[in-house]
Amino acid sequence: MRNRLSGLMLVLAAWCGEEAVVEAAETWTVGREVPAGELVSMDQVDHRPWDALLKRRVDAQGRVDYTGWKASAADQQALDQYLAALSAAGPRLAASLQGRVAFWINAYNALTIRGILREYPTASIRNHTAALFGYNIWKHLLLRVGGEEYSLDAIEHQVLRKMGEPRIHFAIVCASAGCPPLRNEAYQSDRLDGQLTENARAFFASPARFAYDVRQRRIEVSPILKWFAKDFGADAAAQMATIAPYLPTAEARELAAGGQARVSYLDYDWSLNERKTLPR
Fold it and tell me: Which of 30, 94, 176, 268 has fewest C-beta within 10 Å?
């Protein structure tokens, strides 16, 4: 793990007639360098250490005990060791689709948690996503995997979304209450389909992420379905048909599958997905 400066970036800004020089954002890389001859298939990566951490620090509602995790040197070290173990995976080595999807979902979620712990206490990940200049956790927090460095944005957009599995959007968690709940177990290749299905059903069972009115033929969904619309279908009717099997009632499933519902989007809650420790 190390900090480094990515260099200097010149920005010509018309501000009081002067030029401004702005330093590029610092990047933070976790994981380790692994010789090419020691890389293994993603099917061989052991996710049990991550599973144990999730069981200890995440509750059934997907809320994270950041306070306890931050205070535990042992648990922070265990997370760093898990991320270092992910570095030994070879992205170009043969692996099953299930193994690759499980690997990258676990990697995304573990890297996000590590990034939040670095900043904690914080109220929202959006406090660490500078739009132009400065540190952006989605772009400048990097994980070494097989000799390459992957940002959270790269894992999501360049890797996972290209695998043709829209249910990833109910599994990768951006440390916000509006995200899908963080499972308190690791994703495993032999259980992946069931885990993703459970996630999708739990996601749409939440009134904060899905609502409908049969009489008015109206559906309201999380803006995740707007931000990543093309992953669910070419148009609104196709997108609703994709999510229909996971909706909480028969009438909701029928409304979505019918292709005639008007779709709008609910608000998104960017507050930290934190499990508060109540005072005694």
Answer: 94
